[in-house]
Amino acid sequence: MILIYSHMRKCLALLLVLLLASGMSASIKGPVHKPVKGVKKMAAPSMMIKSPLFKNMEKLPVKYTGDGDGVSPALVFENVPANTKSLALIMDDPDAPAGTFDHWLIFDIPPSVKEIKEGTTPAGAVMGKNSAGRTNYVPPYPPAGNPHRYVFNLYALDKTLFLMEGDDKFRIMSAMEGHIIAHATLIGLHKR
User: Fold this and answer.
1) Is 70 exposed, middle or buried (0-12, 13-18, 19+ CB in 10 A)?
2) Which CATH number goes with the domain that contains 71?
3) Span 63-111, pLDDT tens digits
């Protein structure tokens, strides 16, 4: 038994010498090259949704509400991840008296789309059914009282959904599950 133990020790010592001689020490002791000083690893910029018409948590201009023309506002998308296959936009009102009210649902937006112009739908995109049972933009028109938040959620997806026009938020969110690679929000306020 002592003879076997002594032989194993010699084999391990020889193996260690061979590893060190072959340059494998880097995997044992760490990297051979030291990082260059002053260089920081940059994180990818976060995806953003903005509007040239209002800032986050500011009032929606009346033109885009039920008290004005009721057209959809212009939106701008920034830093959409390179591996995005499609975008989805869901605008809802979480402060609605009967629960969240879905105002605007658009999916299968091509990832090359960088903006949605006022009153338009991007070419190639598909409209979902809102809480009013329609496939268009429903402008904010809350009951009188406290201001409501109108949340524009932008999702970058690693697939195209291929759902039907008029599918509701539940179907859209279910199809998106496990495929969201980035998410951004913009909130506009409206009070009557």
Assistant:
1) middle
2) 3.90.280.10
3) 999 999 999 999 999 999 999 999 999 999 999 999 999 999 999 999 9
Question: What span, in angstroms and rounded, lies between the C-alpha atoms of 154 and 96?
Answer: 20
Assigned domain for 59 exists: yes
Any domain includes 78: yes
Task: Name the DSSP letter for residue 159.
Answer: S
**pLDDT tens per residue, range 132-147:** 999 999 999 999 999 9
Residue 148: name the closest of 184, 105, 98, 107 by CA: 98
pTM (2 decimals)?
0.78
Domain span at 116: 48-190
Number of domains in the chain: 1
Answer yes or no: is 41 within a domain.
no
